[in-house]
Amino acid sequence: MKMKHTLKYSFSFLLLISLFLTQAQETVLKNTSKTKIEGEIPESPKQAITKVSTIVKTDSILVKKDRYGLRVGADLYKMTRALYDKNYKGIEFVGDYRLTKKYFLAAELGNESKTTDDTRLNTTAKGTYLKVGFDYNGYENWLDMENIISIGLRYGASTFSQELNSYRIYNPNPYWGEMPTIVSGEKFSGLTASWIEVVAGVKAKVINNVFVGFSLRLNRLISNHKPANFDNLYIPGFNRTYNGDFGVGLNYTITYFVPIYKKKVTPKKE
Which pTM does this prediction carry? Predict the structure, then answer.
């Protein structure tokens, strides 16, 4: 919806500029036609041609420059999730740097604590993670728009601990009922995991240099150091593990763009 409003305002802006340029050209032509009537010294044909060509050249060439720099911010989804999920605490900082017209170097750094209450296990995972990779912007912006519709790739790595809060022993013949829950408190430190992450997302400029973004992520584990006797039900940065090696995630970000330099856009030759 915000992108539609941005396009709407851009079209309005283009229309106003076109009307302004048309009015300016008409004014120039009227002033030129009044030269003989007002008794001014007429221009020679050569001077008139030079003046007209200069006006056309000035009006037709619009130099467009793309801004290059660093965009930094945070994941609002992780920051606000603790308000409605008492078993979760987390924070993630995000950033990207524009390498070329279409490619951005991207990274995310975060810390999470998540308690998972499974059928037989209750565990708490705590740790830090880092993701690095790139995004490709497939959206063709108009004029000074800087919106992004991207697809990208990340390599993620996490170091974390798992605490076994409680568990229940499986009883295949529950004639006398279920076995009681056993409180443990055993902690396993120095665990690690790594994965590949495919990212599809959108970033839209809402005000000058401020962007909001949303992305969906599909993860595939490469390595997973598990504790003894149970699995990593949740890996910080990877999220919950589904079907062993696969996971999904999302984020909702707000970022600020710090421009470093500008680069002139070369028009495409038809």
Answer: 0.73
